[in-house]
């Protein structure tokens, strides 16, 4: 049923868009994890040309060239899924801006990300381009998460019994969501600085560092990241308390619990990485959990924002019908 002004906002997106957007989300996450493996195993220059690996389609002669080239194939698969999602959003959900706009943005970001990947190879894994490439991947993961969550959103014109009356203002959701997103992004960026500056092994203690054999600059990068985790963690704690007390009526309680658990696991993985002198598998796990936590935060705020938007629309529809009577 359309809304009071003939809007199509009450229609849910088709199943194919929901499935493809979910697949795009999953493969984007897996691509970030594979990219982390490329980085921590120092396989970034396993292929010295782009897009082929030294003229080969499927190099299997050594681990480094193989994992680097298969990372590129993964990027191609993700690109197809992202663009297919954008096409489906344009075809079926142009009227749902909360779905269509991020789907279009994700198409632009993935194109930029492919370019950054090529630039990273051509600049021989310069730290700046590696960091930009990781940041682009994180942003793309956030955007495709928004698309997947909002594509699954159902209009609530006739669903008051599902989310009765939350009493949650969308403006409050936006404010607290911005706090959580910026805190998480700050933690990821400073963690990337630690890895890209080769400071991961500079401080084999936790939570404090001792200035010793490692250059002081590298220890400073460790302190920068740990201070950001401390401050960001406190901000996230405030966010989680606020979300738990105010958003549970939106049906996001389980997601809040999952995000809290992921953050705790992430802190433990970071401590282990430091104490064990950053072995490749622990570094990989650390980034994998960080990416999953980032997706979880984006999913939480997207779901809360989407549901408060629908509830406000439903309230407006009810008021319109009352005035009509």
Automatic annotation (TrEMBL):
Pathway as given in its UniProt record: Porphyrin-containing compound metabolism
Main location (coarse class): membrane
Record flagged with keyword Acetylation: no
Membrane-protein topology: Multi-pass membrane protein
Signal peptide range in chain numbering: none
Pfam families: COX15-CtaA
Name by which UniProt lists this protein: Heme A synthase
Natural source organism: Ferrimicrobium acidiphilum
